Amino acid sequence: MTDASALAQRSRELSILNTIAEGLNREIDLDRALHTTLERVVQLFELRTGWIWLLREDSGEFYLSAALNLPSALADVPRRMEGWCQCRESYEEGEMRNASNIDIIQCSRLKGLASGTDGLRAHASVPLYAHGKPLGILNVVSGDWRELSPEDLRLLTTVGDLLSIAIERARLFARSAQFGAAEERNRIARDIHDTLAQGMAATSLQLETADALLEAGADPAQIRQTLQRALEMTRANIEEARRSVLDLRAAPLEGKTLPEALRELVQTVAGSLHPQIDIDRELRPLPQRIEIGLYRIAQEALANVVQHANATEVELHLHGTSEQIELNIGDNGRGFGPVAVPKGRFGLIGMNERARLLGGTVELCSTPGEGTWLKVGIPLVGKP
Fold first, then answer.
1. What does the mean pLDDT of the chain come to?
2. Other beta carbons less than 10 A from residue 169's beta carbon
3. DSSP assignment, residue 374?
4. Which residue segments constitute the domains of the chain, with CATH numbers given?
5. What is the pLDDT of residue 278?
6. Residue 343 to residue 355: CA distance in whole angstroms
7. CA separation (Å) from 162 to 63, 102, 166, 317?
8. Closest Cα partner for 374 from 292, 318, 323, 321?
9. What is the pLDDT of residue 33?
10. Who contacts 16 (Cβ-Cβ below 8 Å, separation ≥6)?
11. Cβ contacts of residue 226 below 8 Å, gap of 6+?
12. Strand pairing report for 104-106 and 49-55
């Protein structure tokens, strides 16, 4: 390689690293950081597609955290991206440790598929580590397939190092945000306590008034009216406290994954309805706000099934891709027609509001005598 070509190669490498580092430095959200890296790597290295496996912090299990331009054989059948594959096995056995271990691997997920592969059969695998701690794998694929040069493989190793740092930073930020959220919940809980105390003080005043009227021999109707106001205030205070605490408390998810919490919820709320639960085995960890939102929507939907559907069976499905999470809850109950839904029933307003705040949608499908399905879709890739 001449001095001029070496200089051009070095300039290209620095340009690529600068572009990727610049994109990562702007991101503190893990999902956006991963997709930013994939987009830039595929573009700058003139590749076709790519995906990223990460290891869960709690269990050490792999999950698909991001993907770009997957062939239809994989994109249309998400479960083909679950379970064992050769590159994941090589990573777990410690065969991917540095640049010399990066190799072109025949993709075991595409092996044997006759269509929908877009001609893709192999990928380059880049191990991701942070201070020796395993984080996951970056897989990238070209269209023709051409083998990447040793220079590009070394450059991808450096890109992997940058990505690993960004992953660790995003996770640290998420943990600090969760701690801040817990502190905020405690603050709000104190505010609720103060509000409840004021409400109880007003109720006590009404009762003292009723007692004074009784001592003075006042008209029983006046005494009854005062007691009625005290009773109404008590009921309102209890309901407000219950609603506020349930909305703010994240206890059902503390110490549990979303699948674990949902399974427990289904068994607790609808265990007598012969529930069927179908949740992706390798569901990716989700931002806390999305997990809490999905849990609350499921909680409301299952309560509606038990209270209103007159059903004997209920199903809950939770499936995710790198771009979207889908929650479906259905029953075999009485169903209803659109015009038969009383205004404000079935908690649709609350469920729609929760989904909308997460950038998602809620669809209700029901036919009289044939049951009801609630379909919720929440996007996982935020806009910068």
1. 79
2. 17
3. E
4. 3-176 (3.30.450.40), 254-384 (3.30.565.10)
5. 95
6. 19
7. 20, 16, 6, 36
8. 318
9. 84
10. 44, 45, 155, 159
11. 206, 209, 210, 213
12. unpaired
List of the chain residues with pLDDT < 70: 1-4, 97-105, 114, 143-147, 176-199, 237-252, 338-347, 382-384
**For the purposes of burial, counting CB atoms within 10 Å of the CB of 282, is it exposed (0-12), middle (13-18) or buried (19 or more)?**
middle
The four Cα atoms 245, 248, 249, 253 give a dihedral, to 10 degrees, of 150
What single DSSP character describes residue 80? G
8 A C-beta contact, residue 141 and residue 117: no
Token pair 């999950």 is found at: 63
CB-CB contact of 371 with 331 (8 Å): yes
Token pair of 63, please? 């999950």
Give me the half-sphere count of Cα atoms (radius 13 Å) on the Cβ side of residue 166: 25
Question: What's the token pair of residue 337?
Answer: 């027609």
Q: Which residues are bridge partners to 320 per DSSP? A: 325
* Strand 314-320 relative to strand 276-279, pairing: parallel
Please tell me the distance from the alpha carbon of residue 62 to that of residue 54, in angstroms, as a whole number: 6
Q: How far apart are CA 67 and CA 58, in angstroms?
A: 22
**Continuous segment of H or E residues that includes residue 154:** helix 150-215
CB contact at 8 A, 294 and 317:
no
Residue type, 199: G
186 residue type, one letter: N
Q: 3-25 vs 150-215: helix axis angle to the nearest 10?
A: 10
52 SS3 class: strand
Whole-number Å distance between alpha carbons of 64 and 55: 9
Q: Strand (E) positions, 236-346?
A: 276-279, 314-320, 324-331
What residue type is 108 in one-letter code? S
d(CA 17, CA 34): 15
pLDDT at 262: 94
* Cβ 377 vs Cβ 324: under 8 Å: yes
In the block, tokens 């609720």 appear at 192
